[in-house]
Amino acid sequence: MADCFWHCVFPIGIVMTTEFLLNFTPQETRVAIVEHGVVQELHVERPASRGIVGNIYLGKVVRVLPGMQSAFIDIGLERTAFLHVADIWSERQNGEMLRPIERILTEGQPTMVQVLKDPIGTKGARLSTQISLAGRLLVYLPQDRHIGISQRIGDESEREQLRDRLSRLIQEDRAGGFIVRTMAEKATDEELTADIAYLYKLWGEVLSVSKKAEAPCLLHEDLNLSQRLLRDLVNGDTTRVRIDSQENFERLKEFAAEYTPKVLPLLECYTSDRPLFELYNVEVEIQKALARRVDLKSGGYLIIDQTEALTTVDVNTGGFVGVRNFDDTIFKTNLEAAQSIARQLRLRNLGGIIIIDFIDMDSAEHREIVLEELRKALSHDHTKISLNGFSPLGLVEMTRKRTRESLAHLLCEPCPTCNGRGEIKTARTMAYEILREVLREARQFNAREFRVLANPEVINLFLDEENQALAMLSDFIVKKISLHAESSYTQEQFDIVLL
Q1: What pLDDT, in 10s, does the model give residues 80-106?
Q2: Whether the Cβ atoms of residue 219 and residue 58 lie closer than 8 Å to each other
Q3: Which tens digits make up the pLDDT trace of 32-90?
């Protein structure tokens, strides 16, 4: 039954088609990934707050924390970055028990580091001393002779063949090893050799700069968003890459010609007067991705709450009553929700711990089918995911690797009225708070009159239902209390002026 239902949504044997939409303005670059005409991912990069993952720095040790076996490293940013002893490559390489960090690093010591995670919230960047440089087909590891193969290449014989080919192509007199990326699965020897030469040259430039630099200093900056897109995400399923800027189209053509020649035929300059994101309904999808509620086509809906510790997704049937019995209604709502959840995680770039509360299902078979649909939907995600089954409480627990800020954190900020709580105090609560504050100030100051400036809703409450309470307080302190409505004040904002 589940197969019949789901194949109506995604027919058997359908070929995945992917388009990349690149929107450029002087202030930001936005990328939308569209699969089968539906927006699946959004990436935003602003020059003022560009991500630094992959950047290599010559940092300076600011503070060593023996209790946390960590160190704070100054890499020239507003906040110091964080280096754990387990991310010090020289220690991991020994294969023995890690030495205490205070025996490895000292304050003021310069050290070459690479950013693993962008600063998120109040946390500084996460660092490693293991350096890696990514090319189109390979990742170069200057400090490690190992040759690894992407886990996405599952065929063991193919993995061994790639390992043997690369072993023949790399230069024996050069230090370092490589990781073969998924893109290299069908690459020729010439393409692999070109990538190897590019990465050797890049590492040579980093070393050359590091010898002359003084910490803290940036040694190597990773590619910008549009270049990373061509290098990492465009693949055999991609039908075209549409770019709405002639200037950036020419730049990306030059980049593709040098590093990703196979991508060149896919590049297309979009010149119509109608905005590219409007044509594909991306602007609407961005607004939806910032909302707490996500409506399902069946009439059900999701409630997504993102907190500092984790993200919760609650599934509800809503107005969906379109099948024979309630169990089937629940089952089909959960099936649709599984696909929608996978898309929302990519669209919103939600990371960390994610708890999904599907509608309770009595049938173990139904639970397993819903879990499998979620697993299939998540398989299209480029980000590393760990998915567990249903817990004893009926919740599905999963993690999605967090490497950059979520869409909401990037585009929004905490509400100044509620300070990010998502709710505000009622007018009555504020009225009682004002009464307490007037009493407190009357005991401290001998004023002739106390004037209350507050939001009109609060003032109206004092003039109506809480009029008697205000009069009682005025009699008690033997002072006049006057009211003044300030339309510019939020409901939680007030001032008490002493006259």
Answers
A1: 999 999 899 877 666 566 789 999 999
A2: yes
A3: 999 988 999 999 998 777 778 899 999 999 999 999 999 999 999 889 999 999 899 87
* DSSP letters spanning 164-201: HHHHHHS-TTS--EEEE-GGGGG--HHHHHHHHHHHHH
Q: Measured at the alpha carbon of residue 446, what is the angle toward residues 442 and 452, in degrees to the nearest 5? A: 50
Quote the CA–CA distance of 110 and 114 in Å, as a whole number: 13
Q: What is the DSSP letter of 285?
A: H
Q: Are 438 and 476 in contact (CB under 8 A)?
A: no
**CB-CB contact of 5 with 332 (8 Å):** yes
Closest C-alpha among 229, 224, 268 to residue 249:
268
Mind listing the domains of the chain with CATH numbers? Answer: 17-45+224-282 (3.30.420.60), 56-220 (2.40.50.140), 290-411 (3.40.630), 427-498 (3.40.1260.20)
Instruction: Please report the sign of the dihedral spanned by the C-alpha atoms of residue 468, residue 473, residue 475, residue 480.
Output: negative
pTM: 0.72
Helix residue spans in 16-97 (DSSP H)? 89-94
Going by C-beta distance under 8 Å and a sequence separation of 6 or more, which residues neighbour residue 256?
230, 263, 264, 267
Distance separating alpha carbons of residues 263 and 450, to the nearest angstrom: 72
Per the omega criterion (within 30 degrees of 0), is the bond before 216 cis? yes
Q: In what order do the strands lie in the sheet with 301-306?
A: 293-295, 301-306, 310-316, 352-357, 396-400, 385-390
